[in-house]
Amino acid sequence: MSPRESVVTIALLFPDLLGTYGDGGNATILAQRLRWRGQPAEVVTIRSGDAVPASADLYVVGGGEDLPQVLAARQLMNPPNLRRAVEGGATVFAVCAGLQILGTSFDFAGPEGPQGEGLGLVDVSTGRSMNPRAVGELLIDPDPGLVLPAMTGYENHSGATVLGPGVKPAGRVRLGVGNGGDDKVDGFWSGHLLGTYLHGPALARNPALADLLLSWVVGDLTPLDDTDSERLRTERFKAAARVSGGNGTARRWWHGRR
Amino acid sequence: MAATAGRGIAALSRRLGRGSGSVIGGRAILGLDPMALHHLSRGHDTALVSATNGKTTTTALLRAALATRGPVVTNLAGANLPPGLAAALAEGPEGAPAALEVDEAWLGRVVEATRPIIVILLNLSRDQLDRNNEVRKLSSSWRDIFDGRTGVTVVANADDPLVVWGAGAAPDVRWVGAGQPWTADAAGCPRCGSRIVWDAESLPDPATTGDNATPGAPGPTTADDPNVADVIDNPGWACSACDLHRPRLDVAITDGVLRTADGFRHSLQLALPGRANRSNAAMAMTAARIFGVEPGVALEAMASTDEVVGRYRTVRSGNVEARLLLAKNPAGWLEVLDVLRPAPMPVVVAINSRVADGRDPSWLWDVPFEALRGRMVVASGERCADLAVRLHYAEVDHKVVADPVAAIAAAGASEVDLVGNYTSFQTVRAALAS
C-alpha cells in the first residue's frame, strides 16, 4: 500500500460498557499495524455519554454484560451516526455483545419488558437460549469468501445467534459453540461488517483478520513480522486439539457457572 | 470433637508432605460438623477481610497490629474458603482475636457463620473472567449481607463505588479514602447504571489501555498540605444521575500521612512498597483501633512487615536476586507498576491460566504494559505466548522463556523483579524457597 495522507481513525466504541474481555486490544492492534507500515492512525475512545463520530474509518465494538449492552445499543441508535458511517462505507468489527447490537434484536428481558432492540445493520437476531454459557476455546474455519487461515479465540456468552437468509457466517465452527445453531457457524460478514464471538482478543490471535479489516479501509498491505502471533497461534491450535480429544470431532466444551 | 479430628488430619497431611493441611483438615472438620465454622468462631472477636485484591496483605497487617496484645488467629496461607477458615479457627488459641481473609463470593455465608465484629472491604474488580462475569453482582450481594445488620462495623474503601454500594446499607461504617486507581469496572453506577464522574483533581485517571494508556498509578496529589476538612469534604466521585457518591471520610491519606476525622495524624512509612500497601495499612489500622489497639502502636507494628506469604520477598536464583511480586488482574497490575524498580532493570512476567488463575488471559490487554518500555521483559509461564503478543503491540523489548526459573537467568541482570499471577507465583515460590 502507499500511505494515504490523512490519518486513519479507529473508533473504539464504549470500552467502559463493552470492554469486559480485553476487546479494546483490537483497536490497539489495528492502529499499530497501520503505523508500522507508515500509515498514520489514531484510536478515538468513545465512552458512555460521548458523542459517536459518523466520520471514523473503522469502528471496533467489544463484548460485555446485559445491562451495559442495552445502554450501548441505545446510544448507537440515536443519533444514528454508526448507521451513517456504515452507509458511507466504514468498516465495523464487532465481537460478542457488539455483534448482537449490530443485528435486529438481542432479546434482552429487562425489568420493563423486552429491551433488546438492535441497530438492524444486518439481518441477524440473537436469543438467549444457552444455559449454561458457552465458555472456552473457539476455533473457526473462515468463510471461503474471506480468504483467511483458521481463526482462534475464546468465547464466553449465552447468546444464540441466527443469521437471516443470505447472510454469510464469519466461519464454520471446528471447536466450540459460536452462534450456537445446528448449522455450527460463528458470527457473520456482510459488506464491510464482520461480527464474531471470538475474544482473546480476536486480532491478537488472528493478524490476518486484522489486515483484512484494514485492507477494506486502505487497500493492499505489505507483510509484517508476526513471529509472536504465529507462536501464539501454534500453541492455541495445539491446545484446541487437546480439548477436542481423540475422537476427531470438535466437541462442545462447556463450563458451568460458579 | 470435629475440630480435634481436623487438627489430626491436618498434622498427618503435613507429615506426609502434602501441604500445610489446612484445607484437608478443614474439610474433615466441616464433614463431621457442617456448623463447625459457627461453633469454632464462638469466643473469638473476629475481623473478616474481603476484596478482589489485597486480602492477604491486609490480613497480615491487621494480624501484626493485633499481635501487639497477644496471640491472633489467622489464615495467612490464603485458604480463604470455609475449610481453610475452619482449620485456622481450630488451630488458633481459644479466646484470641481472629483476622481472617474471605473469598469475596463467600462473604455472606462466612458472615452468617462467624458473626464478625468487623468486616474490611477493600475493592472489587474483574478477576477470573471465565467464572465471575459480573463484578456488579458481587457488589449487590455484599449489600444484601450488610443491609440493616447490627453488631458489626464495616471498614470500607470510599474510593471504590462498587464497595460503597456494597457497604452503604450497613448501619455502622468507617469510610477510608483508600484509593482505587482501576476504575474501569465502576464506570457504570452500581445502583442505576449511569456514568460515574471522577474528580480529576483528587483521583487518578480511569485506567485505559493502548493509545490512551495511563501507566502507573499516582495516588491523590495535592500541592500543599490541605487541612483535614478539605480532604474529608472532597467529593472524589459521584454518579451523574442518582445520588450515589463518595461518602464523607473517617480516615484519609494525603502525601503519605494518614489522618482521621478525630484528629489523629501519623506518617505512613512501611517496609512494604507502594500505594496499595499504604491503603491496606490504613484499612487495617482503622480495624485495629476498633479492637482497642492505639493507632500509633498499630502502625508501628505494621511498619516492619516486609513479606506476605512470599510476596515482596527477594530470593536467589543462581547469581540473580529476584524480588517476587503478585498481580492477578488489571487492577493488581496497576498497583504493581507503581512498585517496580526503575528501568532498565528487567522484569520477568509469568502468566498461567489454570482454574485458580481464570482460564481466559485476555485481561492482559487491559494492563498498560506500555509502561514497561525501556527495559527487557521476559515473557514466561504457561501463557507466555499470549503475553509476548501483548508486549509486541506495546512495543516493549521482550524474549520468551516459558519456564519462570529459566526466565530469571535469561533476563541478563543480577537483579530482577518477577511478577506472577496466582499459580505461576506459587510455582516460582515453591521452586526457589530456601
Query: Which sheet architecture does the biggest sheet of chain B show?
Result: 6 strands, parallel
Low-confidence stretches of chain B: 200-233
Oligomeric composition of the shown chains? heterodimer
Most extensive interface: pair and counts? Answer: A-B, 45 and 38 residues
* Alpha plus pi helix count of chain B: 15
State the total count of DSSP E strands of chain B.
17
Unreliable stretches of chain A: 246-258
Largest sheet of chain A: 6 strands, mixed
**Structural class of chain B, please?**
alpha/beta
Q: Helical stretch count of chain A?
A: 7
Alpha carbon gap, first and last residue of chain A: 49 Å
Mean pLDDT of chain B: 87
* Gyration radius of chain A, in Å: 17 Å
Based on secondary structure, the structural category of chain A is alpha/beta
Q: What value does the average pLDDT of chain A take?
A: 90
- Beta-strand percentage of chain B? 15-25%
Using the alpha-carbon principal axes, give the shape of chain B: globular
Which of globular, elongated, flat, extended, rod-shaped describes the shape of chain A? globular
Helicity level of chain B, as a percent range? 25-40%
- Determine the N-to-C terminus distance of chain B: 37 Å
**Radius of gyration of chain B, in angstroms, nearest whole number:** 21 Å
